[in-house]
Amino acid sequence: MKVMMEKQPYKKLFIKTWGCQMNVYDSQRMIDILTPLGYKTTDTPEESDMIILNTCHIREKATHKVFSELGRLKEHKDRKEAKGGKMLLAVAGCVAQAEGDFIMERAPYVDMVFGPQTYHELPEMIIRATGERVINTDFPPDSKFDHLPDASEVKGGTAFLSIQEGCDKFCTFCVVPYTRGSEFSRSINGILDEANKLVKKNAQEIIVLGQNVNAYHGEGPDGKIWSLGDLLRALADIDGIQRLRYTTSHPRDMGEDLIKAHGDTGKLMPSLHLPVQSGADSILKAMNRKHTADHYRKIIADLRQEQPDIALSSDFIVGFPGETDQDFEDTMQLVRDINYAAAYSFTFSPRPGTPAANMQNLVPEHVKNERLQRLQALVNEQQSKFNDRTRGLTLPVLFDRINEETGQLHGRTPYNQSLHAQGNKRLYGQITDVKITESFPNSLGGEILTTETVVKSA
Ligand code: SAM
Ligand code: SF4
Ligand code: F3S
Fold first, then answer.
1. Among 24, 170, 174, 291, which is best to mutate for testing ligand 1, by the most ligand atoms less than 8 A from CB?
2. If we measure between CA atoms, which residue out of 384, 379, 417, 381 comes closest to residue 398?
3. In angstroms, what CA-CA distances link 86 with 12, 40, 47, 50, 246?
């Protein structure tokens, strides 16, 4: 007798992600865990069966933002449940880790709260959440990486690969050591295995991630401790990988070997994000960065010796407690000396529980804002000039996105500039030569040079 199996409808999963690339990676891994349980992602929260807010706690109003989002989502949940449906509402990520108990208390309609180190337990948490509210913010003794399934897909030819978690640096302004826990490096075998699987799913580019990625020191197959430089060289040996990048780095861990890798590892792209935060030694000291501005200049000089072409970017905090006009001028001078291709700058935001939140000599808001504008104007000018200099060049671009409305392809140059061009959709996820024809402050425009367009225009 033939038994007709009824096809189960899939469950809708809505994930909203804030914060750094580590959170983007974590959200993707949550999808990988939930896909075998019958979940499929959706772009709208209304009728979802499960909603996950993957949160970031790095700057002010983080908790506030989560609560206002939760307030809106509660209405969808109430509406669905009034009709007899069920919607699981979960808060994940760094706000969940830092403020888990508070969220449980203030938002009784939230079903699950879990941190960045426990999301691999999602299947068990979902079962538990049918009978009780679940909070899971411990730092478990075993690593989540030992339990995660393979990545379900690679989008646009590029993939994040997390190799290191947590941070032991304790910069005085930063919440990350508290939300992500202490530094932990995955084993080389585990990373290479994941990289090989990503390549089979068409990854052309791998971006290795860590809060302090260059502090990486994982166990190699030879039983010895391997550095990030060793790992990058091993990744470059994998056929199919065309491009490698790594982020985010700390100047103190820019060792000689890693700097050398920029000269001898062709697949390592000529771009580096190396946050410095300030150009004033007294502020760097108060931030507990444990290096000077000149040490940073020396690292950049050494990098440029190995890879003269390297495009540099950085993060800056302006208005740290005690920052004088002269300290700020020192930051401006450092920016002039380095000449960045891009930079992200923020005004200092006191974070509860961090040492800098209790520091004296606060810089008034209007001074912070005025300094931020001056710094951003300088950086924007440098970025525009950098983009202008690439006009007329032909560069290989990895097209990792299609704009469905305009049909345009969007991608990245080796220098990590974003670029758009008209082209055939088949180039999505591929690396193609593009002639740069336009430059804007934040992006480039180009013409794709494939055989067919060359023949057409000849
Ligand atoms: N690990 C990286 C490093 O060592 O520079 C940075 C990680 S953090 C996720 C990204 C950036 O957020 C920092 O580089 C810093 O510029 C900024 N940031 C962190 N805490 C901040 C705070 N309390 N106020 C303003 N900006 C902050
Ligand atoms: Fe935060 Fe400093 Fe660690 Fe970077 S190195 S994550 S800024 S504590
Ligand atoms: Fe934010 Fe956590 Fe990343 S605080 S920046 S999501 S490590």
1. 174
2. 417
3. 11, 16, 9, 8, 41
Distance CA 326, CA 349 (A): 21
Under 8 Å between Cβ of 402 and 380: no
Judged by its nearest atom, the ligand closest to the C-alpha of residue 276 is: 1
What's the pLDDT tens digit per position in 257-315? Answer: 999 999 999 999 999 999 999 999 999 999 999 999 999 999 999 999 999 999 999 99
Distance of CA 317 to the CA centre of its chain: 18
DSSP 379-392: HHHHHHHHHHHTTT
Nearest CA to ligand 2 atom 1: 174
* pLDDT for residue 7: 60
Please indicate whether residue 93, judged by its CB atom, sits closer than 6 Å to ligand 3. Answer: yes
Phi/psi for 310 (5° steps) reads -65, 135
Q: What span, in angstroms and rounded, lies between the C-alpha atoms of 121 and 257?
A: 37
Name the residue of 26, 247, 276, 317 to mutate for ligand 1: max ligand atoms within 8 A of Cβ: 317
Largest CA distance in the chain: 86
- Type of residue numbered 14: F
Tokens of 413: 């140059």
- Give CA–CA dist 433/242, Å, rounded: 14
Q: What's 268's DSSP letter?
A: B
pLDDT, tens digit, 9 for 90 and up, residues 19-55: 999 999 999 999 999 999 999 999 999 989 999 999 9
Pairing of strands 271-273, 243-247: unpaired
Closest approach atom of ligand 3 to CA 23: 6
Q: Ligand 1 centre from 215 Cα, in Å?
A: 16
Ligand 1 atom at minimum distance from 19 CA: 9
Query: Ligand 3: does its nearest atom lie under 6 Å from the Cβ of 180?
Result: yes
Band (pLDDT 50/70/90 cuts) for residue 5 is low
Cβ pair 74, 98 in contact under 8 A: no
Tokens 């426990």 correspond to what residue? 118
For residue 173, the CA-to-ligand 1 centroid distance in Å is 8
3-class DSSP state of 12: strand
* 285 residue type, one letter: K
Residue with structure tokens 């690679």? 154
Contacts of 91 (CB under 8 A, 6+ apart): 52, 53, 55, 66, 70, 100, 103, 107, 110, 112, 113, 114
Burial category of 161 from C-beta neighbours within 10 Å (exposed 0-12, middle 13-18, buried 19 and up):
buried
CA 109/CA 117 separation, integer angstroms = 23
Alpha-carbon Rg for the chain in angstroms: 23
